[in-house]
Amino acid sequence: MMVADVLRPRGAGLPRLRDTRAVWPVLALIAILVFDWVMVPNFFQIRVVEGRLFGNVIDILYRATPTALVSLGMALVIGTKGIDLSVGSTIAIVGAVISWRIHAGDPHIVILFEALAVAVVCGIWNGSLVAGLGIQPIIATLILMVSGRGIGLLINLLYGGTDPSFDSPLLQGLSTGHLWLIPTRLVVGAVLFVALWLVIRRTALGLFIEAVGGNAAAADLAGVNARRIIFVAYVLCGLLAGCAGVILTADTHTSDPVSVAMYIELDAILAVVIGGASLGGGRIYLGLTVIGALVIQALTTSILISGLRPEYNLIVKSVVVMIVLLLQSRNVRHHVTMLFQGRRR
Amino acid sequence: MSFKTILAGTALAFSTLAAGSAWAETIGFSQVGSEGDWRPAFSANMQNEAATYGIDLKFADAQGKQEEQLRAVRAFIAQGVDAIIIAPVVVTGWDQVLQEAKDANIPVFLVDRDVDVADKSLYVTRISADFNLEGKIAGAWLAQASLGNCKIVELQGTTGSAPAIERNAGFQAIIDQFPNMEIVQTQSGDFTTEGGKKVMEAFIKSTNNLEGICASFAHNDNMQLGAIQAMKEAGLNPGTDIKMVSVDYVPAMADALAAGEANASVELRSAVAEYIYPVILDYLKAPSDLPKWIVIPSDLHVAN
Predict the structure, then answer these.
(1) Taking chain A (345 residues) in consecutive chunks of 10 residues, what is each chunk's mean pLDDT?
(2) Are B98 and B136 within one domain?
(3) How many structural domains comprise chain B?
(4) Mutate to test the interface with B, among A40, A149, A258 (most CBs of B within 10 A)
(5) Separation of alpha carbons B73 and B79, rounded Å
(6) Domain containing B170 — which CATH number?
């Protein structure tokens, strides 16, 4: 009784904090990092190696950047109540195009734009199928998902394809290079994030996407051209996947369409969901989506440094993800609270 | 069916037979798919070399699906080929279709992976490299190079895949002979460059720049090439500070060995037609009991 009385004033403040979307993904990220810190005491140590910052935390940011870019695109598409399964294949095609054009001898700055243009074409293809022909997104984007890696292999064949590795100071600089002490890809990622945030939140586009995702018919009646909005979302998603594709391809400076960015679409969808959005559409959380991508990468990095046998990796990952998602569910939290309250009585 | 159609059909059958007789043997080859660097090279070698052995090779790509492979094998049986080569997608589920081939008196040869059948007489023999032996050769090289004193990080292939299991087992069997050799970290890099690079980046952090680590053993070259990139980006000297040993010997690894960034690679031959076709042709001429596994030798390539 007394305990309950003492708790009450704090308890009154808690629900509001508990219902803030941002709390759970951020808490999950902090929990994973604290766990790492307990496990590896020098986890947060950051040094300067070869002229750039070097450490586990930098690694997490560094490795999460491509996934975060793809996730941001996915957040837009999911906002329209859609889904884009083809982002991994888009990355495979972008990689193949980069390698092909480098072997063909194009200037590398031109290749950068060619790669992004190809990604936009992939986005236009998906957008046309979904918005133009009205095919269900999961099926429409499945087409490119299935065919994309094959297309990548065919592009590799254009120049023989026996050794698809390349050297490109410009592209590798964008991916594995560093500006002063900061890895370039973090700068690229931050710039793209700010640009996207401006486009989504400082123009009406974000609102329109959420309106279309919430109720396409109502948005149409309100004068929003739903088809055009959906189309734009898929094109932006393709473009962002293209940016991730440039970073991932330049990272290993080789084109490997069969395995590059395997299952990245699933990680991206997961990041969006951990960020608090529903696959039912109508909401875009850009910042939280990035946190979602960081949660996934922090988890992957922790497993890698934990010394856990590889057989357990996927199980641990799925268990943690499930816990995070359950915590986010208001129903589950409600039931858990009821359970504890019941016991107290 | 009218008499004319039957006649036409028979004529067609005879003309096919006549065309076929320009070749000594017709062999159907059901390949897994075209993933990675090694398998397309293997397929190309089998197709290119067929003519030199007077073989009419019917090639079917199963695109990684067993049902596709079963369909291809049944089609080969229906066509009445002289022999069937299968590179199985998976080890299980082969009893029935192999029985069908046996009933049709068509000998079946396995290449690459094994199959798990109750009746071993359903296939003539398996002709392939020995993943376990590859692991042993890598381990033996490292034992000698480190004088039996070495802490090792291991980049495993896709968890649960046959090459990952066998290369690990073979390598482990050798280093178990040396009390001061030990695998201190092991993770899966999924056989990809990207995966190898990510895992090595994490190893570098968790072992304080690979302090006290003497070698990196990767289940394939692609992962090792990724590990080399990660080490160079961390200011380490792969091949000098850390001994690098892996399996496959792909062209890019030959370059890395020449540059001194890697130390040794066990070759998984892709040009294996010269080991496979003679066995099949000899068997077709004079069927005999062959051992159930004919091992294709693995060579070790080292940096000079």
Answers:
(1) 44 53 84 87 80 84 94 94 94 93 90 95 96 93 93 85 77 86 92 95 90 87 89 95 94 85 90 88 90 91 81 82 81 80 61
(2) no
(3) 2
(4) A258
(5) 10
(6) 3.40.50.2300
